[in-house]
Amino acid sequence: MKILYSWLKDFIDLDLTPEELAGKLTVLGMEVEEIKKTGADFDDIYAAKIVKINAHPNSEKLHLVDLETKDGAKRVVCGAQNIAEGQTVPLANVGSRLGKIYLKPAEIRGVISEGMLCSADELGLAAERQKGIMILDPKIPVGTDVKTLYGKADAIFDVSLTPNRPDLMSHLGIARELSVLLNIPLKKREWKKYKGEGSALKINIHTEDDGCARYTGRIIRGVKNTESPAWMKERLLAMGVNPKNALVDITNYVLFEIGHPMHAFDLNHLEGGEINVRWAQENENFLALDDTQRTLTPQNLVIADGKKAVALAGVMGGKGDSILPETKDIFLEGAYFYPPCINKTSKKFALSTESSQRFERGVDIEGCLNSIEMATALVLEICGGEPSEINDVYPNPYRPAQIEFKPEDLEKILGMEIDRERLKDIFGRLGADLKTSDSGAWLFTPGSYRRDLNHKWDLAEEAARYIGLENLAADGDGTTHATLYFGENPKAVDLGEKFSDALAGLGFYECKNFDFVSQKDLGLFSFSDKTAVEIKNPLADGMEFLRPNLLMSLLKNIALNQNFGRHDLALFEYGKTFSLQKGFPLETFSLGAVMCGKTPREKFFMNPQCKVGFYGLKGAAENILRDFEGVTFQPSKNAPSHMHPKICMDILLNNKKIGFLGQVHPLTLKAYDIKQDVYAFEFDVKNLEKLFDAQQFKKAREISAFPASKRDLSVVIDKNITFDKVRQVLKMAAPDTKYNLIDLYQGSNLPEGKKSITLSFDFISKEKTLTDAEVNKAVEAILAKLKSDLGAELR
Amino acid sequence: MIEELKSKLNLIESNYISKIQACQDLKQLQDLQVAAVGRKGELTELLKSLKDLSLEEKKEFGPLSNALKTKLVSLFEAKTAELETAAINEELNKADLDLTLPSYPFNKGGRHPLAIAQKRMTDILSKLGFVWAHGPFIEDAYHNFDALNIPAHHPARDMQDTFFVKNTNKTDFVLRTHTSGVQIRTMQKQRPPIRIMAPGRVFRKDALDATHSPVFHQIEGLYVDKNVSLADLKRDLTVFMKGLFGKKAEVRFRPSFFPFTEPSVEVDVKCVFCEGKDKNCPVCKGSGWKEMLGAGIVHPNVLRNCNIDPEVYSGYAFGMGVERLAMFSLDIKDIRTFYENDIRILEQF
Lengths: 795, 349
Known about the structure:
heterodimer; A: 795 residues; alpha+beta; Phenylalanyl-tRNA Synthetase, Chain B, domain 1; CATH 2.40.50.140; Phenylalanyl-tRNA Synthetase, Chain B, domain 3; 6 domains; six-stranded antiparallel sheet; 19 helices; elongated; B: 349 residues; BirA Bifunctional Protein, domain 2; seven-stranded mixed sheet; two-stranded antiparallel sheet; 12 helices
C-alpha cells in the first residue's frame, strides 16, 4: 500500500526524515519496501534557453551547448541526444544543490562546462517520466526558479501490511498508529455535515447474515462533474491512481484518506427507485467497469437496482451505471460487506481492487456514515449539488467488546516490566475507552476499527509494538523455565540419517525431488492411478500424483545429468512414498538409490576392464543393511515390470519383501531418455524401525589374539551352481571362517558346462595359533564338503 | 695348555672381528657366523676343550670364552641389521613410479545442500534442548488449519494456495502448508513441558520460479511450559541466529502477524554480505536486513485446542525456511537449484 508523507501530516505533526519515518513504521510491524521521493529536492536550478548546439572538439558523443541564462550567456558540455536549439531546459550552476550533491566545477574532455543541464532523474522528479534532459514548457521565462514549478519535496512509501490490520490501509490509520507510538495527538479532520432534503433510495438488504451488515446511501442531485482540483489529482497520482473526474476521484480520495471504500452510481441509470443487496443468481451475467463480462453464482454478492445487478458488491461497479463526465445526479454508497464473501468473489474472478482489498480484510463498520459525510462535503465543495437525507440500514449495530486485563498479565506474556504511565498513554490513545475497575483490573474498549483486539494476548502485542521489541531484554532472566527432558528422535529420522550418511560415505550423492509425478510416470512403473494419491488441484501438468516410489524421481535426475555429460552417477534419496488404501492416503519413508556409468574402479587407469555393474549397487545395499539382522537378498521370482526380468533381487526382512534391487528395465530407461544401464534399489524403512535403536549401544564382540592363516582353494563346479549354494555349503563346513571369492573363471581350458571358483580363506582360532596341519585339515574338510554336496573337483 | 687356548681365543677374536667388518654380503656374513659360533664353529669347537681343563683353569677360561661368544654374536647381529637396511634401501631406490599419475578415483559422495543446512539448524536446536518430532505430509484440515486458529474462510485455505488430496472418504486432506501441524500433534500427545523441533517438507501452490517452489522445507520450534514469555523467545532465537551466523550476528525483531501466535514477530539478521552498507546489495535488496523466521507466543486458542490451559501454561513457537537459510549461506541464487540435483552442484558440498 502507498502512503504519501505530506498526506499523513494532515493528521499528525511529524518532524522526521522519510528514512526516520520508515524506521518507525518498521518498529510498528509495517515493512517499508520502497521510499520514493518526489517534489523538488534541489536549490538554485533555473530555466535557460538553448541558443546553439556545437560539436565538442574531442568527442563525437558530447556537445557544447550555448545558453541564454539569467546570468547572461553560458556554455556547458552535454551528452544528451534529446536536446535541440530553442528548447527551455533546467540548468544547474556551480554550487547548485541536487539532493545531497552540490555541483562542482567540471572540465569534460578538455572543455570547461559552466554548469549542467539536468534530467528528470537528476532533479529527483521521477514522476515526470522523461528520458534525457528534461524539456520545460517553452512559455516558461528564462531565469525562472525551477523549484517553483514543482511541489515541495515529498515521499511516497510503499508499505506492506499484515492481513490482520485493515485499519492501517489508509492515511488516517497509519497516522493513528504513529500517534500512539510517538505519543502525540491526532488532528481531527472535520467535514461539514449536511442533513439533506428528500429521501434517498429505498435500501433492501437480503443477505445480512453473511453478506452485508450495513448499507448507507444518499443521493446528490445537480452536480457538475468537473476535473478534480490539482491537490487531489496529485495525491491520487501518488497513490498510483489516474484521476478521471471529480466524482470518481472523490470516492477514491475518501478510500485512501480514511480507508473506507465508496461507490458512486449514476442515479439516472438506476431503475425502480431502490437498492437491493442480494446474492447473484446462478449464471447471472454482469458487465463490469473493466469491460469484462462475468458469469456469477449465488456465492457472489451484488448490488442491484429494481431490475438488474449494478455492482459486484465491494469489488467493482458495473459498466452501465458508471459515473461519466456528464453525470448530473448520483447515488453514493458506503457499506460494510462481510470479508469472506468479498474474498470469495475477488478470488473467483482474480479481480483484486483497492476496494476489495479493504473489504476482504474488514473495514470499520462504524465508518460508513462518516465516509458518506466526507464524500458529500467534497462533492458539494467541488461539484456543488443538492444532497438528500442519508438512508442508513444497519440492522445489528456494532457493540464494542470490553477487554479486562491486568498490567501484570501483559508483563508475564512479554517477560518484561512495563511502565504503567506509558501503558495508560498507549491504551488511552489506542482505544475508544480505558477505565480501571475497583479490583485493579483495566477495562479497555478498542475502537470499532480494531476488531482484531480481543484478549490480553492481543493487548500484549500492542504493548510490545509501541514500547518496541528492541527494548525487550534478550537475556530473559537467564534461566530456562522448562524442566528439560530427554526425548528420542523419531526412528525414521535416525534411520534416514544413518542410511544417508552411510551412502554418502560410499560415494553416493543425496538428491531431493518434488513429491509430484505424472500419470505417465505411474504407468511406466505399472502403478494404477486407483492406488496412487491424486492432487485435486495440481500446480501443473505432470504434477497430478504423489510418487509411489522414489525411483521415478531418481531416473529423472540421471536423465538431467546425462545431458550435461555426467554419466557416472551414484545417487540416492530418502523420502516419502505415497499410496491410497481404502480411500485413505498413506505415506511411508523409503530409501532409493541408483548407480550407472563407470564405478571408480572402472575409471582407474589400471585394469579398468572389469565391470562392477550390478554388484556395485548390491554392495552398497549390503553395506548399509549389514547391521539389520534378518535382511536377505534373493533373486526375484517375479521382477517388477520396470526391472530387468533376470537381474533383480528381492530385499527381504524375515522373508517378507521390503524392496528390490537390480537393473532397471531398458524400456523404462528409454521412457526417461536414459542411454545407459542403470542399477537401482529401493526399500521401505518402516519395518526396519523395529530393528533399529539409535540409543542402544552395540556390544563389542570378543576378537582373537592369534594370527590368521590364509589358504586359497580353487575348485571346478557345474556352471549352473549359484554362488548362494556355495555359500550355504561353506556355512555348514566352516561356519566361523571368513572367505572371499577372488576369482571366477569360465573358459576354454575347463570342461564343457563347468566353472572354476577360487576362494581365499582366513583360518583363525580364539584359543591358539593354528598349526599347518590343523589348517590343512580344515581345508580338506571344506573341500570334502564341496565335493560331496556340489560335486566340486580340486582344480 | 690354558695359555695355548687363550692365544687361540685371541686369534679367533681378531680374525672374525676384521672379517665381520669387511663383509659386505648378507650370505657371506651368515656363513661367517656359522663358521664362528655355529654348532661346529671354531669357537664352539674350542669350547669343547673346556672339559679337559682343571677346575681352576675352567674358572678362568670359561668366562673368557663366553664373553667372546656374546661379543661375536652381537657383532654379527649388528652387521646383519646394517646389511639388511642397506639392501632394503637399495631396493627402494630402484622404485620408478610416476607419483603424479591419477589417483584411485573414490567417489566423494555427499549429503544434499538442504540436508546440510537442516543439520546445521537441528544441531544448534538440539544443544538448546529441542527434541525432534515429525508428522505426516498429508495432513487433515484440522491439524493444518483449524487447530492452528486459521479460520475456515482464511485465504491460505484456498485451492489457489493449498494442495488438496483427492480421496474417496470424507476427510479433507491437504498437503501440509507448514510444519506447524506437528505442534498440534505433539501437544495432543504430551503434556508440558514440551520443547520440540520439527523439520520437514511443506507444500504450497506456488508456481516454480527463482524464489518460489511448490515444495520446500521448514523447521518448526515449540516450547510450552509455565511462564514462557516473549523475552524467552527473543533470547533463544537470538542464540539460534548467532549459532547460525556467528557470534557477531546482529538480530532484529519486528512485530508481525500469524493466526497461531499472539504476539507475533519476525526475525531479521543483518545482511552478512553487505552488512547493511550496500544500497544495491542483491541479497538484502539494500535494506540491510534479511528476514529469517517468523515466531510468537502460542495463541491461547491453539493451546485450548490441545486442552492446555493458557492461564497456566504459555509457550512460544517459531518457523524458519531451510531453503532461505541454504540460499543465503551457500550463495545459491535460484531455489530450483535444490531440486534439479545436478551433480555439478551436489559434488560441491
